[in-house]
From TrEMBL:
EC number: 2.7.6.1
Key word ATP-binding present: yes
CDD domains: PRTases_typeI
Domain Ribose-phosphate pyrophosphokinase N-terminal: 8-121
Protein name: ribose-phosphate diphosphokinase
Gene name in the database record: prsA
Length: 312
């Protein structure tokens, strides 16, 4: 059983998801007062005592960078208010694509963010579908790395598709696709892409047979949707019966909504780890990750094992 009180707070841009999590958790969100100065500087102040308690701070760190700064300031406020522990709940971990030094004089942004969160006072991180699993090792504090597969696998089963095939839009996602296929008893195909610069796919080739298959593309995020739409085109050209896409994080920048709406994708399913304007495309469906995070937060607070919440 829990031996301390729990408190839930959130950053302003993650409030919609945080309210859902709080509802499933069974607790009201704590209030934060923001003072904003004329030059844009802001100061968050917790509106209740958290002394000796466990703080859960819900925040996805998508751009602009003020979202990350706001999170760091609230962590610092909770630490200075004598919270016993501060669990940062990051449904979407921003800068995760900067997980290695792949060119001269490049930063490792994911490691920098890990250092900042720890320095601010976070004592535990809870996140979902990191762009690279090794980011967990960037932290010197416990990390609960959850997977949206616990949400998506049930949805796929409910579709009851014949000749189901799981596809990865790139070589990097091959392991993820294989794991999904293993749970669903499906085949796997891989789209091999070549890039010359970020967000632009030059060429793409298909590895595997999709004739007459209902294909589901699996990825960790959708940014401009260029890769997914190109993969869908190739899959349909190679004889696929239908193509859907599932991705944990709907970044959906640039012309993503138009790309999806005008693509051969039948449906695109994402979670609400990032706010999604699903009214801009009839093909986008949002599944909430709130029940998953609320359950794991309760388990962590009550010192229970969370292994039952892992599928992939």
């Amino acid at each position: 059983m829990a031996d301390q009180l729990s408190y839930l707070f959130c950053t302003r841009t993650s409030r919609d998801l945080a309210e859902k999590i709080a509802q499933y958790y069974g607790k009201e969100l704590g209030k934060i007062n923001f003072q904003t100065f004329s030059d844009g500087e802001f100061e968050p102040v917790l509106d209740e005592s958290v002394r000796g308690g466990r703080v859960f701070l819900i925040a996805s760190t998508f751009p602009p960078a003020d979202n990350l700064l706001e999170l760091l300031l609230i962590i610092d406020a909770a630490k200075r208010a004598s919270a016993k522990s501060i669990t940062v709940v990051l449904p979407y971990f921003g800068l995760a694509r900067q997980d290695r030094k792949d060119k001269p004089r490049a930063p490792i942004g994911a490691k920098l963010v890990a250092n900042l969160l720890t320095a601010a006072g976070a004592t535990r991180i809870m996140t979902m579908d990191l762009h690279a699993d090794q980011i967990q090792g960037f932290f010197e504090i416990p990390v609960d790395h959850l997977y949206a597969s616990t949400i998506f696998v049930d949805y796929i089963r409910d579709l009851n598709l014949e000749n189901l095939t799981i596809a990865s839009p790139d070589m990097g996602g091959a392991k993820r696709a294989k794991n999904y296929a293993g749970h669903l008893g499906a085949d796997v195909v891989i789209a091999y892409k070549e890039r010359k610069k970020a967000n632009v796919v030059e060429e793409m080739f298909l590895i595997g047979d999709v004739v007459g298959k209902n294909v589901i593309l699996i990825d960790d995020m959708i940014d401009t949707a260029g890769t997914l739409c190109k993969a869908a085109d190739i899959l349909m050209e190679k004889g696929a019966k239908s193509v859907r896409a599932m991705a944990t994080h709907g970044v959906l920048s640039g012309k993503a909504y138009d790309n999806i709406e005008n693509s051969k994708l039948l449906e695109v399913i994402v979670t609400d780890s990032i706010p999604v304007k699903n009214n801009l495309s009839s093909k986008i469906k949002v599944l909430s990750c709130a029940p998953l995070f609320a359950d794991v937060m309760k388990m962590v607070h009550e010192h229970q094992s969370i292994s039952s919440k892992f599928i992939i």
